[in-house]
Amino acid sequence: MAEVTLREITKIYDGGVLAVDKANIEIRDREFVVLVGPSGCGKSTTLRMIAGLEDISGGELYIDNRLVNDVPPKDRDIAMVFQNYALYPHMTVYENMAFGLKIRKFPKEEIEQRVKEAAKILDIEELLDRKPKALSGGQRQRVAVGRAIVRKPKVFLFDEPLSNLDAKLRVQMRAEISSLHNKLQATMIYVTHDQVEALTMADKIVVMKLGLIQQIGAPLELYNRPRNKFVAGFIGSPPMNFMVVELSKEGDHFVADEGAFKINIPVETAPQLEPYVGKSITFGIRPEDVEFSPEPIPGKTIDGTVTVIEPLGSETHIYLSTGKNQFIGKIDPSVTAAVDGPVSLLPDLAKARFFDLDTELAIYEDPVGDIPTVDEQIAAAEAKEAAEAAAAEQN
Ligand code: ADP
User: Fold this and answer.
1) Residue 54 CA: which ligand 1 atom is closest?
2) Helices 167-184 and 108-122, axial angle in degrees (round to 10)
3) Helix (H, G, I), strand (E, B) or coil at 284
4) Torsion of CA 249, 359, 210, 200, to 10 degrees
5) Whose CA is nearest to atom 11 of ligand 1?
6) Secondary structure of residue 35 in the 3-state scheme
7) Which pLDDT tens digit goes with each residue over 334-367?
8) Is the CB of 40 inside a 6 Å radius of any atom of ligand 1?
9) What is the pLDDT of residues 314-330, one digit of tens each?
């Protein structure tokens, strides 16, 4: 078992920088949790507090129900993989992987057995006698992971481990770390600024901004039901399009007026907008949730001028400007359009998301709540596990 619980964890650096503000995160045994957010949002600080590399200014950190705020890193039973790999250049791969066990006075045979086992899992058995400088970036990354594996820690921590690799290798290592998680069945906490890594690897994503948790949820939960405009824009690529519209109502539909065009939204599609009639709201639509329209359809299409066309083979990204707002649409590659020419995109209104202009919270029929407390997160996770167990029993 290896659960990690952050209760109201806060970090204030010398000089007064509030880097992490009352973070509540419950990490379950064997869960793969990704902390994601733009640079400076506090994700590395959070990870380093879990590792014990950074003092905790407030709140409580538990590993397996044991309060570890003041427990030194070496006694926390965790292993961390760093962005720059932190390998010892003068040691061979074998020695690098063995080092942590050696200083912990493990017997020689046990060290050898663990290093060989890890090397096999990572497919680096041929490299054990090499020095780091004779390895490629991807191989170094594997050695860094190997050094963590041999420790058989309760929890693995990863701090942007793939950001020094080229794009192709990153995709490959992403899959390797996911498969490693399946093999080792260990609890893993992974920090990245890359939302694609978060979406593809995580069981659960924690989105942060300016030291504050914005949302915690499964990848598709965040994609389908972002809590606020920040999460909506951060998760998904290219990002969700936003426009501020004036909302009015005509008969059985709302009218969202952008200025250059109007979109009619049937009341039954978004009844939650009723209190916003007469006000401005933010209308969000993902690039994948629009369709190319050969001509403008009043009340239905987003109309503007093409600024850029990006053919990607499997799809085309078309950029449109209305003068006030920019939009990106993912459209069929067979569609032809000319830069500077008119273009219209038909949004799938069932997929549109709406945001309060002041709070930036998403407007849903059942309103989004606060970030759940640790106890609420535990209760929700236990309910989910019970439901899954019941479903498995039925099969
Ligand atoms: P991220 O990992 O999301 O990029 P960090 O956790 O590294 O963000 O940083 C969060 C905030 O704390 C930033 O404003 C950063 O400038 C600040 N910070 C990080 N390390 C220190 C430090 N040692 N002293 C003072 N401020 C720091």
Assistant:
1) 23
2) 130
3) strand
4) -40
5) 19
6) strand
7) 998 899 999 999 999 999 999 999 999 999 999 9
8) yes
9) 999 999 999 999 999 99
